[in-house]
Write a structure and sequence with these properties.
InterPro entries: ABC3_permease_C, Macrolide_Exporter_MacB. The protein is an all-alpha fold and about 450 residues long. The chain has 2 domains: about 190 residues, no CATH class; about 260 residues, no CATH class. It is about 80% helix and about 0% strand. Helix 3 packs parallel to helix 13 and helix 13 runs parallel beside helix 16. The chain starts with a helix and ends with a helix.
């Protein structure tokens, strides 16, 4: 099956584009922050600078690694699901479950290695820019030279490869356990069910996020800016937990929106049917919306609370420490926002392009291009509403406890402008990516698209 995997990569490169981009971006983020460890290990680095570099690499890089692994797993799962019919046909002509699983794992491993290798020069530039930011904010001495070496490269290649192979094994497990006949049926009709591993992981992450929120409001009450470290974890962990519940959340929100959507005509009626039939594929695009909304809103509002809060007595936090934490927060938000935005666009383009045949069939039975576009628009709106709603809930898990710990009030007095900006960005990215791709897909003649 190794030979088949190589031929599959060669002749169906476009099918792996979304997974490749996720791995490439993930490797850039991993090596960018890991290069701070290479820099810290260089000659002439003072203890204060070494501590700042290590903090940036371990805290921000560690959370970045978790989110990258999660995004790679989500994207790769979507890619394999889109090839469900191909896997079923391989099994129907004699391929064993082990052979199909091996093909999926080999494909993922090869894509991961190529993506990580191509990410090296970009990560080297990213690390240099990150070090420049640390110098400009006074956290690292100006005379320290930049180092990009074995630590960054080994972590980038190793973690990207392991994440891709682990995701492939989990995805292949479901595909290989199904009989060929059942796999063919599953490829044409999806459900919103969640596997046991995903369900357990979702509850674990969500429970951990809620626990961090409780600890922030109780144990760290009156501890000053020290509470932000735990509060930030509450936002990230809760966002990941709710993102794992994406299929269930999307189906639940669509059930609430079903009546008004059906009242919007044929496009709305088709939207309800499509979300119910393609929940798993659409949920893949919901994941980055929840992560973007939850982490960006939680982190920026906590920083706003801190900026307006009075210094706490009895803490050892200095002005330099406060500046370092503020820099960490903005780096986290920037990293997550950029990564989630690209993943959102990447996932929507892959999912919408895959539906070319579906769009062609709809046009052959009477749907106009305008109706198809309105259907895609309604689907995008449902995704954005769901993602912003539950991303906001994840942010509340961090904002409310931190506001209680620092100001004694439940909600911060910051207004809604920042939140509306984040929600508006999520909606704009979702609608632009889905509608632009659908419009380009509709340029293909209906007969040609339907027979693809």
């Amino acid at each position: 099956m190794i030979g088949l995997a190589l031929r599959s990569l060669r002749y169906r490169a476009s099918a792996f584009a979304a997974s490749f981009l996720a791995m490439w971006l993930g490797a850039i983020i991993l090596m960018t922050f890991a290069s701070m460890l290479d820099t810290a290990a260089g000659p002439g680095v003072d203890e204060v600078s070494k501590q700042a570099l290590s903090l940036m690499a371990t805290i921000v890089g560690g959370w970045g690694m978790l989110i990258v692994v999660f995004a790679v797993t989500s994207t790769l799962t979507l890619s394999v699901r889109q090839r469900g019919r191909e896997m079923a046909l391989l099994k129907s002509i004699g391929a064993t479950p082990g052979q199909v699983g091996s093909m999926i794992v080999v494909e993922a491993g090869l894509v991961a290695l190529v993506a990580a290798a191509l990410a090296i020069p970009f990560a080297a530039v990213g690390g240099a820019l990150l070090l420049s930011v640390l110098k400009d904010t006074g956290q690292v001495a100006t005379g320290i030279g930049y180092g990009f070496g074995s630590i960054a490269i080994q972590m980038g290649l190793g973690i990207t490869f392991v994440a891709a192979v682990a995701a492939a094994l989990l995805t292949a497990r479901r595909v290989t356990r199904m009989r060929a006949r059942d796999a063919l049926a599953d490829a044409s009709m999806e459900t919103s069910g969640m596997g046991r591993v995903r369900l357990i992981a979702a509850w674990v992450f969500l429970g951990a996020g809620l626990s961090c929120g409780v600890v922030t409001a109780t144990v760290f009450n009156g501890k000053g800016i020290d509470a932000m470290a735990v509060g930030g974890q509450a936002a990230i962990l809760s966002s990941i937990g709710l993102a794992l519940f994406a299929p269930v959340l999307l189906r639940s929100v669509t059930a609430v929106l079903a009546a008004p959507l059906r009242g919007a005509g044929a496009a709305g009626y088709l939207t309800v049917i499509n979300v119910r039939r393609r929940t798993q594929q659409m949920a893949g695009a919901l994941v980055p919306i929840i992560l973007f909304t939850g982490i960006a809103t939680g982190t920026l509002y906590m920083q706003g609370i801190e900026n307006s809060a009075m210094p706490s007595a009895g803490t050892s936090t200095t002005a330099a420490d406060a500046k370092a934490i503020e820099t960490l927060n903005f780096v986290v938000v920037g990293m997550i926002a950029l990564f989630a935005a690209i993943m959102l666009i990447n996932t929507l383009i892959a999912a919408t392009t895959y539906r070319r045949q579906e769009f062609g069939q709809q046009r052959l039975i009477g749907s106009t291009p305008g109706q198809v576009l309105r259907m895609v628009g309604f689907e995008g709106a449902a995704l954005a509403i769901t993602g912003v709603l539950f991303g906001s809930l994840a942010a509340v898990v961090a904002i409310v406890p931190y506001s209680l710990a620092r100001t004694g009030t439940v909600f911060p007095e910051m207004g809604l402008a920042l939140y509306l900006g984040i929600a508006g960005t999520a909606l704009a990215l979702t609608m632009a990516a889905s509608l632009t791709t659908a419009r380009r897909t509709l340029t293909t003649p209906a007969v040609e698209a339907a027979s693809a």
